[in-house]
Amino acid sequence: MVADLFLRSTMVDAKGSGFILDGGRMNHFPIIRRVLDRIFVEMLYKYGYSFDQVSQKMRAYLQHMADFYHGRSGPIDFAHPFYRFAYVLIYLPGRVVLLKQIFRQCSGLTKLLSEKILAGQQITGASLGGGPGTELLALKSYAYESMYKDGVDLQFHFTACDFVKAWEDVWWAIDTETNMFLVQQEVPKALVVSDILCGDLAGPAQGTNKLHGKDFYIMSYVISEVSNVPTFKQFLDVLVQSAPRGAVFLAVDISPVSVVNKAIEVFRSTGLNVFALSYIDDRVINPAEILHFAFYTRKLNWNIQENFKAFWLYGVKP
Ligand SMILES: C[S@@+](CC[C@H](N)C(=O)[O-])C[C@H]1O[C@@H](n2cnc3c(N)ncnc32)[C@H](O)[C@@H]1O
Questions:
Q1: In the predicted model, what is the mean pLDDT of residues 158-180?
Q2: Are strands 307-316 and 273-283 parallel, antiparallel or unpaired?
């Protein structure tokens, strides 16, 4: 009965919109807006800039970030709050929609979750390179809308790892904002208990024991960025060895064939069975939802990303 309810709720798909057909919704757009307000105020105080000064400077950071993602400029540094603000504003709103869509469609993940729910077990997951909290927000929203609202009793433990320690503030802001929503909805216990640690995915895996043995791992827009592939493979290999049989490793990223091949090659090298290569080329945000960010997009004269060309696939530990 519970699994039946769960599977039915995961079949919900309003193409591209992020809405579900029945049940309540954790609207992540106002949550991201409030997180942006927090970072913006921090910048005003920290640097003593006026509102207009921050807005003016921000445009240069936005341009650099766009150039970087088009391969036209040197690396961006998320340790700097201007880049963190720019990333959260431009990419998070759409990527959360994208990830929720993928969670619903990824049969490896939905199968794993329904088995765990039937067995009455807690579900553990991790995001690699998940510093901003994109995956955390998508997971909380997905868990609330697709399971909790249908009466499925579950609890997630979710850990992120990123080598930019400064992301922690944004991560905890997202965690707090989503918890406030859940308390308002009278969710009786923590749906997702979360944690973040600082670690380099392309460095030695020591010190990242908290990432071991999870039921699922998410790599969202990170494989494309990791340049030291041999050490990344070693890092991932340690996680694969530590994970239980059937653990799911989900990769989502930009869709050039070189990145797709890199993801497949990295996964296969660690012994994972690779499934379900799928492509997305879609507008994922409704115009009405963009209005949540109008205060900033008008001030900065910059648009948030609405269209995504991406691929996703998953690997399963045999
Ligand atoms: C494009 S962002 C993606 C963020 C998030 N996963 C998402 O989907 O929005 C890439 C993230 O990976 C992190 N990252 C890149 N290389 C890394 C490495 N070698 N070790 C740990 N984190 C890394 C960056 O700090 C950044 O937060």
A1: 94
A2: antiparallel
